[in-house]
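dumping this here before i forget
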Amino acid sequence: MAILTKDTNKLRVTSCEFKNKVISLVTRYLLLVTLLITYHLSLITVVHAERIKDIASIEGVRENQLIGYGLVVGLNGTGDKGLSTMQGIANMLGRMGLTTNPNDIKAKNAAAVMVTAILPPFPKPGIKIDALVSAIGDAKNLQGGTLLLAPLKGPDGKVYGLAQGPISIGGFTGGGGGTTVQKNHPTAGRIPNGVIIERGLQVNMGKGNDINILLNTPDFTTASEVSKTINQGLKGNYAFAVDPSVIRLRIPAEYSHRVVELVTLVEGLEVSVDVLAKVIINERTGTVVMGEKVKISPVAISHGSLTIEVKTEYQVSQPFPFAPQKAETVVVPQEKVDVKEQKASLVEVSGVTLGEVIRALNALGVTPRDLIAILQALKAAGALKAELEII
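structure:
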C-alpha cells in the first residue's frame, strides 16, 4: 500500500511537470506569433510609405523655361512661304555680310521655328540639354532639316543657351495628292543634346540656416508627419510645419558645411502619406478614377435608360381595279415611333472600402458614362463621402 502511494505521488509530480512544460511551450509559441505579426505589420507600413524625395522638393531647386527663335534649313521643298521667314533669312545673311532683299528670296527649303528647352537646377556652362523645335509658319514637314544657331533666353531676357543641330521628328511623311502616308507629327521635333548652356544660374537653397521643404500636394496631416519623421531621423527638434505645403528645416550644427549630405538624408526618409478621398471624372473620355479612401453611405440606386426610336417607313399606294385613268401609284411615307425603357431594379449600395464600392457599382452593370451620372447624383444626395472633381 505504501509503495502504491509513493508511485501515485510520483505520477502526480510527473503530470504537473508535463502541464508546466506544455504551458511554457504554448506561451513561447504565442509570443513568437505575436512578434511575427508585429514584424509583418511593420513591413506593411514601410511598403505603403513614401520617400520625402517623391512627395516634396527643396525650395529654390527648380527648373526654368528657355525660348528662342530660329531657322531650319535643308528641307525638301516643305518649308515656309511667308514673308516673315524670308525676312529672317535676309537678317541671317546680313549678319554674314550679304545684303539681300526679303522680297527677292524664294526659299521653300527653310522654315521659321520656335525653340524651347528646360534649364535644369544648378546649370553649369558646357552642359548639354535637349531642345524642342516647332514650326510657326506654314511649313509642311521638318524632316531632314537642320536648325541654325539660335540663342535661347530666359524670362529675364538673358541668353542661357545656344541651340543647333539636326532635327529628329521620329516619323515620316510620304506620298502626294490624295494618297499620303504620315507617321507622328512632322512639324515638331527634338534635337537631342542640341542646347549648350552658356550661363549658370545662382540657386539659393533655403534662407540663412533654414531649408524649406515644399510638398507637391499641400496637406496638413502629411506636413505634420513629414516634420515628425525628419525630427526622428535627425534625433532632434529641427523641423516644423509652417503651413500645409511648407516644412521648415533648421540646419544642425554638424551639417552646417554639409548641406548636400543633409538633404540626401532627409530625402531618403520614408513617411506615411495621407490621401484625400477624391473622385476624378473626365466626361470627354468617360474616365472615372476613385481614391482609396472613397466611401459611400447606405443608399438605394435605381438606374435605367430610356430609348426613343423614330423611323420612317415608305409604303406604296396603288389604285383600285377599274379606277379612273388619272389614278396613279404613289409612295406614302409613314412615321413610326418606338419607345423602349429598360427595367431598372433598386439596388442598395454602401461600402467602407474601395473594393466594396466597386463591387456594389459593378452589380448594377453600368457603363462608365452611366457611372458618371450615378456619382454626380450620389454627391448631390450627400451619400458620396469624397471630393468630386470634373476635368
